[in-house]
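HUMAN: Forgive my ignorance: could you write out one protein's sequence and backbone structure tokens?

ASSISTANT:
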Amino acid sequence: MIGQHIQDLRKRRGLSLTELSLRAGVAKSYLSSIERGIQKNPSIQFLEKIGEVLNVSVEDIINFGNIDQSAALLDKEWEELVKEAMNSGVSKEQFKDFLEYNKWKLHQEQE
């Protein structure tokens, strides 16, 4: 299961098995055996290396299938807000800029 999740993340990032193994500094054969489920218990060090390249935490890799489904569902109000923003023409970049501005503003207020 962890291997399948790593493979899904790798493919979503557009990386080949070779690219991920080189960037993470892990053996391609070991990564392949993890993804195919031959090796089922990768070390934390391995997961840290893979997670760094894939931009996910070790916890996210390990707990991907253990999240309570009800807790994983988006709050309906947030979902509606996102849909409204999308329908009004707000781009992802504009939304990210807005979030960054708010983070900066909160930081300024705390100082």
Summary: Residues 67-72 have pLDDT under 50 and may be disordered. Helices lie at 2-12, 17-24, 28-35, 44-54, 58-62, 69-72, 76-87, 92-110.
